[in-house]
Design goal:
binds 3-phosphoglyceric acid, 13 helices, nucleotide-binding, binds adenosine-5'-triphosphate, alpha/beta, 5-stranded parallel beta sheet, Phosphoglycerate_kinase_N, single chain, transferase
Length: about 375
């Protein structure tokens, strides 16, 4: 049984409870990166066009349940969303005690669901309470779909109607397009700091892609596995065998040259060396220009590209060229490209290629779990609800 979609339901006059992922960075009471809020707008506008009574809900941060606090209040999100929609978005704090009054064509935001006791444990009575607030529950929070919590999972069992929102549907469609039957050649880039945190993703991708480009600290472990000195670089000696096993399974092109420094700092002097010339007191902080060129060539010719994690320490100018070259090559490629993860999105933003990536996922952990082939609990809850 497939998941029901919001587009199949008539929302007119209905109390529609939409779970979004508004877990966004906030500083001094202001939202500092609103990509996730913007991504929710088409869903909200569709519900508004149908004159639904709209209740939005989300978590923010990881507060102690039962202890609401101002820092993790969704108030800044309500204000920001109101500005984007050009209407007032009321923040409802007491929705568990008193059902919110929502008029047709009105949008309210329920306060941080993780302030509620039982949210994280997927408590049944809390899930029933959420369900009682609505006629239709819409799960649209792809970024939180790997969590089985009361607002992402339990509620779907008890709501009169439960369906996937347009954002969740499009995220799943894009990932399926990249992974189920990818246009070849498929190139995956997995960067970031540690192999250990991405081992399952690396394994899953090694089964699917034609070329696996590794970056960042992850690449250092592969360079060590190939027998080269990595000096003081971040790498994981205990994962060298796993890296060798991956290299036996799939084509992992190794860097030819690297950018090194003797300190991890924005004052550090960056030096380019051949990969076999790294000294004991140096650390590898980026791929070198020849390597970036080789990777970029492969990316430009790819039919499908999946990207998670930077190629180097892109936050520091002198170690950012490798990640920049890859971002530009992905943007230039005619293949289908999908990118996900907090640092990856920050890099895409930094290098100004956002509009030239085919699909940018709002998911971090959820994106990785999908790629690993894991079942997303929020999606299975919708499948069960459709039975
Ligand atoms: N060679 C390197 N040595 C040390 N740190 C590196 C190196 N290359 C990249 N990094 C750092 O790794 C960090 C990203 O790694 P991390 O494992 O946190 O990725 P991530 O948060 O999982 O990525 P994403 O959010 O895209 O999934 C960046 O801050 C980057 O500066
Ligand atoms: O930012 C995320 O990855 C999601 O919002 C999930 O947040 P969590 O890791 O606190 O559950």
């Amino acid at each position: 049984m497939t998941v029901r979609k919001m587009s199949e339901l008539n929302l007119a006059g209905q109390r529609v409870l939409i779970r979004q992922d508004f877990n966004v960075p906030i500083k001094d009471g202001k939202v500092t990166s609103d990509a996730r809020i913007r991504a929710s707008l088409p869903t909200i506008r569709t519900a508004l066009e149908q004159n639904a009574r709209i209740m939005l809900m989300s978590h923010l941060g990881r507060p102690t349940e039962g202890e609401p606090n101002d820092e993790e209040s969704l108030a800044p999100v309500a204000n920001h969303l109101g500005e984007l929609l050009g209407m007032t978005v009321r923040l409802e704090r007491d929705y568990l005690e008193q059902d919110p009054e929502v008029k047709e064509g009105e949008v309210v935001l329920l306060e941080n669901v993780r302030f509620n006791k039982g949210e994280k444990k997927d408590d049944e009575s809390l899930a029933r309470k959420y369900a009682s607030l609505c006629d239709i529950y819409v799960m649209d929070a792809f970024g939180t779909s790997h969590r089985a919590e009361a607002s992402t999972h339990g509620v779907a069992r008890f709501a009169p109607d439960a369906c996937a929102g347009p954002l969740l549907s499009s995220e799943l469609d894009a990932l399926e397009k990249a992974l189920a039957n990818p246009k070849r050649p498929m190139v995956a880039i997995v960067g970031g700091s540690k192999v250990s945190t991405k081992l399952e993703v690396l394994n899953a991708l090694s089964e699917k892609c034609d070329q696996l480009i590794v970056g960042g600290g992850i690449a250092n472990t592969f360079i060590a596995a190939a027998g080269y000195n990595v000096g003081k670089s971040l790498y994981e000696a205990d994962l060298v065998d796993q890296a060798k096993a991956l290299m036996d399974k799939v084509n992992v092109p190794l860097p030819i040259d690297v950018v090194v420094a003797t300190e991890f700092s924005d004052k550090a002097e960056a030096v380019t060396r051949n990969v076999d010339e790294v000294r004991d007191d140096e650390m590898i902080l980026d791929v070198g220009p020849q390597t970036a060129q080789t990777y970029a060539d492969a990316l430009r010719e790819a039919g499908t590209i999946l990207w998670n994690g930077p190629a180097g320490v892109f936050e520091i100018e002198q170690f950012s060229a490798g990640t920049r070259a890859m971002a530009n090559a992905i943007a230039d490629s005619n293949g289908f490209s999908i990118a996900g993860g907090g640092d990856t999105l920050a890099a895409i933003d930094q290098f100004g290629v956002t509009d030239r990536i085919s699909y940018i996922s709002t998911g971090g952990g959820a994106f990785l779990e999908y790629v690993e082939g894991k079942t997303l609990p929020a999606v299975s809850a919708l499948r069960d609800a459709a039975k």
